[in-house]
Design brief:
By secondary structure, this protein is an all-alpha fold. It is 66% helix and 0% strand. The protein has one domain. The protein contains three helices and no strands. It is flat and about 40 Å long. The termini are far apart.
């Protein structure tokens, strides 16, 4: 599973091109979508799912868990630009 997810994350290398002034946000969106589609395909193949929607569900659950962990981390270290009074 780790190998397939690693390969599906490889388009993220192109995010270095996001420093281009007018194209940065558009490229970030396109590359993010590409990585998401590749991850769904990777999960479907690695877990031998017959349904693509099941793989989408697995990726969605993983994405929600990642957001919660990042939010807790930033809350604990005082991130998100909060001023320290």
């Amino acid at each position: 599973m780790l190998r397939t997810i690693g390969f599906s994350s490889s388009p993220g290398v192109l995010r270095v091109l996001a420093i281009i002034p007018m194209l940065g946000a558009i490229l970030n969106f396109i590359i993010g979508f590409w990585m998401l589609v590749a991850m769904v395909i990777a999960v479907r193949q690695a877990l031998d799912y017959k349904s693509t929607w099941r793989a989408v569900g697995v990726c969605l659950i993983g994405w929600i868990v990642q957001i919660v962990i990042f939010a807790l981390f930033f809350w604990l270290v005082g991130g998100f630009g909060a001023s320290q009074a």
